[in-house]
Amino acid sequence: MDNRIRTLIFQAIDQTISDPDFESLQDAIEHDPKVRDEYLRAVGLSESLREIAEDATFVGKDDSQRPSAEQAEQTTTRERNLTSSGRQVGWRSLTAAAMVIFCVGGIAFWLGWANAPSRSDPNAAQAPSAGGQQESRIAGHATLRRIVDLAWSDGVTKRREGDLLPNGKLAFDRGVAEIDFFCGATLVVEGPAELEIENDWSVRLAKGRIRATVPPAARGFIVKAADSEIIDLGTEFAVEVEAGTARVEVVDGEVELRGGAHDGQHLVTGEAQLLKGAPRETKLSTGLSTSVDVRRRQQAAEERRFTQWKNRSLELRTDSRLIAYYPIASSAAGRIVRNAASHRNDRNGLAVGPVERTVGRFGALSTGLRFDRPGARVRTRIDGEFAAFTFCCWARIDSLKHRYNALFMADSYETGEPHWQIRDDGKLMFSVMVDDTQEVELFNKRDQRVVKDAGLHRVYFSEPIWEASTSGQWFHLVAVYDPVNRRVQQYVNGRKVASEAIVDAFHITSLRIGAAEIGNWGQPFRKTPWFAVRNLDGTIDEMAIYDAALNSDEVSDLYEQGKPLAY
Known about the structure:
Elements: H1 3-13, H2 19-31, H3 33-57, H4 69-80, E1 142-152, E2 164-165, E3 168-181, E4 186-199, E5 202-213, E6 222-225, E7 228-232, E8 236-242, E9 245-252, E10 254-258, E11 266-268, E12 272-276, H5 291-316, E13 322-326, E14 336-337, E15 349-352, E16 356-360, E17 363-370, E18 377-382, E19 389-399, E20 404-410, E21 418-423, E22 427-444, E23 449-464, E24 473-482, E25 487-492, E26 495-501, E27 514-518, E28 537-546, H6 552-562
Parallel strand pairs: 5-6
Antiparallel strand pairs: 1-2, 1-3, 3-4, 4-5, 5-8, 6-7, 7-10, 8-9, 9-12, 10-11, 13-28, 14-15, 15-18, 16-17, 17-28, 18-27, 19-24, 19-28, 20-21, 20-27, 21-22, 22-23, 24-25, 25-26
Helix pairs in contact: 1-2, 1-3, 2-3
C-alpha cells in the first residue's frame, strides 16, 4: 500500500482531509480489502493512544473523574461507525473518527469527543451513535389502560388508551375508564367522574365511583375523598363521591381511614363507612364494574366498530382513483397482502422475511403487520404513470429506533418515485425524486454539514408527530402530493400538520412507483449486500394509495370512518 493512502486514512481520522481526498479514500475502502484492513488498524491505533492518554491524565484522580464505560463505548462506536451515502451503503462512506491529543514523554490528555456529522444525504439511513443522546424523560404516574363509551368533559385533555397520565385533572361525563398506576394499583372509574392524579401512589376523587384493586406491591395506595384518606392495607375496596355524599366499602382485605371524623378507623372485608352525607340503602359494590366487566364491554364495542369499518372498507375499494388498497386489518393469514381496489386485481403485496401478523387497531378481531425486525417487509410492484399521489395508512409506532423509519418506499428512488417515512425525531417525511441523474450538494441543517445528495429532490417535513409517550399508539397518517396545485400536505388523525409549496425547481408532473416496499426499504443497492436499516418498529393495518390529491374533508372522513374505538 502506498504512503498516500496511509496519509489519507490518518487525515480522515483527525478530520483534516479535503473533500476530494475523502471521496478518493471512500472508493479505495470500497474496492480494496487491504485498504479496509489498514483503516481498521489505524482506528485501533487511535483507540490505543486515547486509552494511554486517559490513563496518563487521570493518574492520582478518583474514579468519578474518569470517563465512564458508557463514554468509552460511545467513543469506540463512533470511531468504527461506517454510514450510508447516496445509494451505496457499508464501506462507501466514513464517519470521521476522533481527535486524540497525545504528547511524547508520557504527558497526554483526552479532551473529549466531537461527533463529526455524516457526509450522507439527508434521506439516507444513519442511526445516532450509541450513547450519543441524552436519556429520554417523560412525565406520568399512570396509564389509561382501557376506556369504554367514554365522553370527555369540556375543558379537560382528552386521552386515548395507552396514554400516560401525568398529575392533574381527569374528568368524563359518561363511560368507564380503567387506570393502571405505576405502583401497581388499578382503578376502574365509572362516570360521570372527576378525579385528580397526584402521584404514583395517590389520587383524589371529587366525583364518581371507583373500584380499586391493589396488589401487595402497591400496598399503601391512597384514595382521597371528602375529608379522609383511604389507605389500602389489603386488596380491593370501592369509593363513591356524589353531591353531598361520600362513602367507602371494603370488598376484600383491609383499609385504614386517616383524617376527618373517622381518623384511625380500620375497615375489613364487607365493612363500609359513610364519610359524608346521608346513608344509602344499597351496597356500594353492587353493580360496580370490575376489570373483567370493562374488558367484556370493550370487546363487544370493538366488534361493533370493526363491523362498521368493514362495511366502509367495501365502499372505499370501489373508488376509481385508487392505485392500490391494502385493507390488512381484514386480511386472512398468509403471505399475500391483497390489493382490494375493485378495478385492479394485480398489485398485490407479498410479506417477506419476519413479518408477523398481530393484533390490529380494532383489537383481537382485526389484523396488522408488524415490521419490528430488519428483514421484515411487504414487497409490491405498481407500474404505470400517475398525476398525483395520496398515501394513507393506519400505523402503530412502537419506537423510532432508526434515523429513518419506512412507511412506503420505492426501491430505486428514480425520477418520479416516492419515499414516505418518519425520522427519528418524530417528523414525517415525504419526497418524490425529480431528477435522479443529478448529484446535488446542499447544507444539512440537522448535521450542520454540506452533504452530497444522489438525485434532485426535496424532502417535505412535518413538525414532530411522535414522541416516546405515544409509543404503541395508532396514527392515521396521510401525505398528499399535488402537482397541479403545487402543494405537499400532510395529515395526522384527520388534522393537517404540514403544508408546503412545490417550487419550480422541484416540480414534476409524471409520477411513478415501480417495485416498492411497505414498512421497509431494502432493495436499492443491487451491487452490494448492504442495505439501509429502515424497518418500521411498529405495525401497519391498512394502506391506500390514490392517483389523486385528496382534500381535507376527504382525509378527515377517512380518519373518522376508520378510527378505532378509543379515538
